[in-house]
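Protocol step 4 of 6: structure prediction from sequence.
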Amino acid sequence: MDQETVRTICYLARLEIDENKSEKIQKDLETIIDLIGSLQTIDTSDVEPLYSPLEMTALMHEDIEKSDNKKEKFLENAAASNEDYFLVPRVVE
């Protein structure tokens, strides 16, 4: 990691930094890259992959078809209706 790379990263992130902070950012980025490198050396061959970080199982429900057609009940409560629709005053002429 060099100062040119730090300036490029700051430019791409639309960050404006002064030279004093540039050196600290360079050291911080090198530390982050070292940490990521150390994570890549860990043996994870015996670890089962997670599909969710919460480790919860989804509840399964039986797929039951049921139809509650309450069209007649709703149309009875309407101020005006025909066999299938609510009747309302015309809004657009």
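Step 5 (inspection) to follow. The first helix runs from residue 3 to 12.
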